[in-house]
């Protein structure tokens, strides 16, 4: 997928409603996972991404600063994000737990 024509999200759009369910891709366009939810909003938010699994089963939730992901809309208006990390690098992060 050529992301160069996609529209970056504004800081105001970095919220749970806009990002929930957004697929996350690595630099090779492999699907890493999807956004489960956010803690906070805007540039300081933490994005919880479910990594791996199948249809959410067996996925590992990890928390990432929203600034580590490049969120955008494609030509159809679908929100997705790019990570400079690989799936394996993200899987190595500690599991996010609600507490």
Please state the average pLDDT score. Answer: 89
User: Can you tell me the CATH class?
Assistant: Mainly Beta
Counting H and I runs of at least 4 residues, what is the number of helices? 2
- Portion of residues in helices? under 10%
Largest sheet: 7 strands, mixed
The fraction of residues assigned to DSSP E strands is 35-45%
- CATH fold type: SH3 type barrels
Which architecture does the CATH hierarchy give at level 2? Roll
Nearest-angstrom radius of gyration?
13 Å
What's the total count of β strands? 7
Globally, the shape reads globular
Features:
99 residues; mainly beta; SH3 type barrels; seven-stranded mixed β-sheet; 2 helices; 7 strands; 9% helix
Give your account of this protein's structure.
With 99 residues, this protein is mainly beta. It has one domain (3-84): SH3 type barrels (Roll). Helices cover 9% and strands 36% of the residues. It contains 2 helices and 7 strands, in the order βαββββββα. Strands 1-6-7-2-3-4-5 form a 7-stranded mixed β-sheet. A hairpin with a 6-residue loop joins strand 3 (31-39) and strand 4 (46-51). The longest helix is centred in the C-terminal third of the chain and has 5 residues, at 87-91. The chain starts with 6 loop residues before the first strand and ends in an 8-residue tail after the last helix. 23% of the residues are buried. The model has no long low-confidence stretch (mean pLDDT 89). This is Photosystem reaction center subunit H. InterPro entries: PRC_barrel-like_sf (IPR011033).
